[in-house]
Amino acid sequence: MRKTRSWLLTAMMVACSAGESVVRNANNLDESLAAPTHSIEPAAEPALETESLADATGTTTPANRPPQILSVEIDARDQARTDRDLSVKPRAEDPDNDAITFEYRWSVNGRLASEAGDTLPHAHFSRGDQVQLAIRASDGLESSSWWREDPLPIANAAPRITSIPGDFEPDGSFRYPIIVDDPDGDRGYRYEIRRAPAGVAIDTVTGTLHWTPHPGQAGIHPIVIAVGDRHGGVAVQEFDMSVGFEDVNPPASPQP
């Protein structure tokens, strides 16, 4: 009987070591043995290493604030023509005194033309086009709202007289073919003499000036010509012509 009871006790002890609740009857004595039970508390989570400076020191870091555009100035706004680039000078401020950069979007007739920078080359537009600029400022973290300028109409550009008048021909006549360049590609110019001595004329088809002075016109004569492109653009050129005559029949020497 002692050996049997000893074996049962050993078995119960093993079962308890395994964490199980065990009940055994021994020698009909209704003895009950139960393994102790333990509640297991969950392990506390480790504190995060990325605690904010505000939690550690009680101070706070102010949030970044975006810059604001104060004004936008487009160079030659009232004289936007096809022979001039369009340049812009924006002005902005940043409440945090951060460095500011700008982003530009130039559009022509509603279509994006360039994002290159503060200048739109005149090759991007023609007379009658509508150019619009959108611009915003950035501090590297945040950007301002887009600032949009009203559409800017491109006006006509005046023609340019690129030729230079020459001298008289050996026969005493003066011929000057006027050469004109127009940024808008206009043709069919109107030629006009605004100031000249009598006898000066311009061929309205070829734009050539003709003049053959007579002996009574010796001296210096100012000449002013103008060329219009029929769209309100006019080019003006001024120059002086010096006229001199030589006496081909000098008086005979007096006889001794």
Summed up:
The chain is mainly beta.
Task: Describe the structure using short key phrases.
mainly beta; 256 residues; 3 domains; Immunoglobulin-like
Would you write up a description of this structure?
- The protein has two helices and 16 strands.
- The protein has 256 residues and is mainly beta.
- The chain has three domains: 1-29; 68-153, Immunoglobulins (Immunoglobulin-like); 160-243, Immunoglobulin-like.
- The strands form five sheets. Strands 3, 4, 6, 7 and 8 form a five-stranded antiparallel sheet that branches.
- Mean pLDDT is 81; it is low at 1-43 and 46-55.
Q: Please give the count of helices.
A: 2
Strand content: 25-35%
Helix content: under 10%
Instruction: Give the overall shape.
Output: elongated
Q: Unreliable segments (pLDDT under 50, ≥5 consecutive)? A: 1-43, 46-55
Q: State the name of the first-level CATH class of the largest domain.
A: Mainly Beta
Break the fold down into its secondary structure elements and pairings.
Elements: H1 2-17, H2 53-57, E1 68-74, E2 86-93, E3 101-108, E4 111-114, E5 119-120, E6 130-138, E7 147-148, E8 152-153, E9 160-161, E10 174-177, E11 180-181, E12 190-195, E13 201-202, E14 208-211, E15 219-228, E16 234-243
Antiparallel strand pairs: 1-2, 2-5, 3-4, 3-6, 6-7, 6-8, 9-11, 10-14, 12-15, 13-14, 15-16
